[in-house]
Design a protein that fits this description.
By secondary structure, this protein is mainly α. It is built from 19 helices and eight strands.
């Protein structure tokens, strides 16, 4: 039933007749709406009673008559299907869904048009998808602008990436970004910061878009900190950089960013914007270099990772003996963690550290040998003194021996006539070290023991 009635009024008709005709048209429109509303409620009642087929039939009658609400309901139903207690009541059907959504889209419904574009894109019909996206994007829909930009930046079988398509995509992204679309803001920030073969680096634009994206994307905050630290797109400002980096630490945010901690360590180490404090630098470097379960800034997922630059700095601390005691083995540990992560200087440092470690080992071995020789000489001297003290001239005739208890019991030395050592146990060096090294043969340990001559 038509919603608009055109009336031709002649001069002979009076105002009363005109009023009656307009009243009749209004009543007709209200009556038509009430019928449609009653039919939609009837379909909903069928669904509440689990009589899905009758409900779908009513929806189809309404949709065929042009009811926008019923068309979108059928599109949603065939897109997702209908399940009840894990039993399929209505199967999903992409063709049926596209059919009913197209009917709604042709009536100018923005939501239906966006869904049609997405269905066409997922099915591989990129040309028609772009047509619908452009229609919506030109009308100012920020979702369509962003998704169209993403589609134009993709390389598919029907067209290749070109600078023209990329420029067009960036224009749509900027339009979506001006409407504060979060995903578009982040894509603009990362695109202008990182650049590519089709998008030139532009740190000035990167600063602008990263500031807008930083409220919802912590990675944009890191980019800002780095640009202020290095003076890219803006003048160097270590204080601003420190503020951005500090917000990405565990104290201020759920994101435990090792990259930000590396820069904080560098600031304290070199005195950039703060006073030089090597101890604080060591704390920041060590936290950034330690592998932990962290929230990754760029993937927004938890993963075990650390900053390789901080690992190199930790290696330098231990190699050069800065703040900590020099320890080449510990330095090699940190260097090897950073190895294989595109740091050319690491291999050279590992090589030099290994050579230095070998020299240290050789020196230590030489010292150990010399110490053992000196210790053996000392043992011989102490043994001679101790054995001589075993014989007592005073008790010689009675056959008693005044001796050191620890020499006999721990060292297990077999002593012959006149104090000559005849036999020593295999573990003589070990036990004799325990006995003599601390000068344990003193007067308090001298006791009388029976002497049995050989």
């Amino acid at each position: 039933m038509p919603k608009f009635t055109f009336i031709v009024i002649t001069k002979a008709m009076g105002l009363t007749t005109l009023f009656v005709l307009f009243s009749a048209c209004a009543q007709l429109s209200i009556h038509e709406q009430s019928i449609e509303q009653a039919s939609f409620e009837k379909a909903s009642e069928y669904f509440r009673q689990y009589d899905y087929q009758k409900g779908i039939e009513v929806y189809k009658q309404l949709a065929t008559a042009g009811d926008l609400k019923a068309q979108k309901a059928l599109g949603y139903l065939y897109t997702h299907g209908l399940y009840r207690h894990d039993v399929v009541e209505v199967n999903s059907d992409s063709e049926q869904a596209l059919y009913w959504y197209l009917m709604a889209a042709e009536q100018g419904d923005f939501q239906a048009q966006l869904i049609v574009a997405r269905i066409l894109k997922s099915s591989g019909d990129y040309m028609n998808a772009i047509t619908w996206y452009e229609k919506l994007a030109s009308a100012g829909d920020r979702n369509a602008q962003r998704e169209l930009a993403v589609l134009l930046r993709q390389e598919t079988y029907w067209y290749k990436q070109t600078e023209q398509n990329y420029q067009k995509a960036m224009q749509w992204l900027e339009k979506a970004g001006e409407q504060e679309d979060p995903d578009a803001l982040w894509q603009l920030c990362s695109s202008y910061y990182s650049g590519s073969k089709l998008v030139k680096l532009n740190y000035t634009k990167a600063v602008y878009w990263c500031k807008k994206a930083s409220a919802q994307y912590p990675a944009a905050m890191y980019y800002l900190g780095e640009m202020y630290f290095l003076g890219r797109g803006v003048e160097k400002n270590y204080q601003r950089a420190r503020e951005y980096f500090f917000q990405l630490t565990r104290k201020q945010a759920p994101y435990d960013s090792p990259q930000a901690k590396y820069y904080l360590g560098k600031m304290y180490f070199d005195g950039l914007g703060v006073q030089v404090d090597r101890k604080k630098a060591l704390v920041w470097y060590e936290d950034a270099a330690t592998q932990k379960l962290r929230w990754h800034l760029f993937t927004n997922k938890q993963s075990v990772y650390a900053d390789s630059r901080a690992q190199i700095k930790m290696g330098d601390f231990y190699w050069k003996g800065l703040i900590v005691k020099k320890n080449i083995r510990q330095a090699l540990y940190w260097y090897r963690l950073a190895q294989g992560q595109n740091h050319l200087e690491v291999d050279e440092r590992i090589k030099r550290a290994e050579i230095e470690l070998m020299h240290e080992i050789e020196k230590a071995d030489e010292k150990r040998v010399q110490a053992k020789i000196a210790f053996d000489e000392s043992l011989k001297e102490k043994l001679s003194i101790c054995v001589q003290s075993m014989l007592s001239n005073k008790n010689r005739s009675k056959g008693f021996l005044r001796t050191c208890s620890k020499c006999l019991e721990r060292c297990k030395i077999k002593v012959g006539y006149r104090g000559k050592v005849q036999k020593v146990q295999p573990d003589f060096d070990k036990e004799l070290h325990a006995c003599f090294y601390k000068n344990s043969c003193d007067a308090d340990n001298i006791v009388d023991k029976e002497f049995i001559p050989n």
